Amino acid sequence: MASLPRDVMPTVALADQVRRRYPHLDKAFYLDMWPFTGPMLMVISPDLMRQATQGEAPLPKVGFLKNYMKPISGGHDLVSMEGEEWKRWRDVFRPAFGRATELVPNIVENISVFRDQLVGRAKSQNGVFQLHHSSLMLAMDMSGKAIWDHNMDSQRGYNDMADAIVSQLRWLLVDGFMPFASLNFIRPMVHKYNSFRMERYITGVQKRHKTSKNDSACVISRAVAKVRDGSVDKKESEDPYRELGGEKHFNRVIKSQMRFLLLAGYDTTGSTITYVLHILSQHPEILAKVREEHNEVLGTDISRAAQQLKENPHLVNRVPYTTAVLKETLRMYPPTSTLRNGKPGFYLHDRDSSGSTTKFPTEGCMIFGNHHGLHHNPRYWKDPERFIPERFLVSSDDLSGLHPLPDAWRPFEKGPRACMGSELAMVEIKAVIMLVAREFDFTPAYQEWESIQSKSAKGEAKIV
User: Fold this and answer.
1) Is residue 47, in this structure, part of any structural domain at all?
2) Record-annotated residues binding heme (predicted)?
3) Per residue, what are the HEC states of 362-415?
4) Whole domain around residue 253: which residue ranges?
5) Can you say which residues are annotated as belonging to the binding site for heme?
6) Annotated binding site, which residues?
7) What is the pLDDT of residues 268-305, one digit of tens each?
């Protein structure tokens, strides 16, 4: 680990680094995490991950997630829920994430702001800026509109909700991994203040929605309408909120989901936008194919692209090569992993080519389904360190061996607890690529950026 950058996330890099150093540990291995937490079973095999998350009785999420997510969501989010409560709320929200293309016109508005800011950056004196920050604010605005039908406008100015979420993320910690950090007495005060800011902001948004007569296609409005129309509880004569804990609890959970879903679409989508634009800058031959596809679908007049996409949202589903580029980006840089609690009598079974079986007991262990380790594992991916979009274009019987193995590609996880917003995320990011890739060339400028930062620290320059 000493060879890795200082700010690398160790739990993500660890599986890949161990597999490289000890090639025989390329499916699963145990880690002794004392004194920070209990033992961990690190899994980098698609079949073992399938057993943990997609079987008849998938393992539950780890217990500390509820405490971890509470400062962000308020404690009633879909990630933290388990059992019947989770099933009921999943049934409320899963249909609400359908028909993502209906949200494309609003998404295009947010991307147009992003595009205009890129033009301004390109015309500035040095042209050096942090693309990741711009991408995150774009993701924040897209999520606010798609989830809440609310214009956050955090790309162009200060937004209290966005600021509270970013602050809350900076102060988050996993108590199980960092027990001494929890002794910081300032942390709970910051969490409480940021939660107050988020609740205040959401209350204002809800009040404005109540006074508006416009029907909204946003996720929250669809979910609320599903319940109030009585479509969750089949008996129309009964209280539609009864199965969800009553109207008061229903409203509390809706607020919590509004907070959680905004976060869920912020960091993951923003980071992936950064990665895909960076990767395209490093592969001009792939970028040329992407641009050619966009010319065919949107026409050669780049100035008309945004309007074309607004008028014909379904065009985001007519770019197979762009979709393959995005999927390959998500393979190389998966946004999440999965953590599950083991239980007595539950074993993960690995069967090798000779027919023998290795049993991995899970009792007392935290199971870490490490997506980065899996997606870079040469046992399951041909040339995993190469960026090859064609993996997702060839058929399963193709002799090249590029086609993904079953359950090997899982950036959004799989099984009943897979990310419900995956379709929306794919639509958002494809729309960004379609409206940005032809107009801009990006060049990494790490040394120049570090030089600017150094001068700024000495008072010789300012970072814009």
Assistant:
1) no
2) 419
3) CCCCEEEECHHHHHCCCCCCCCCCCCCHHHHCCCCCCCCCCCCCCCCCCCCCCC
4) 64-282
5) 419
6) 419
7) 999 999 999 999 999 999 999 999 999 999 999 999 99
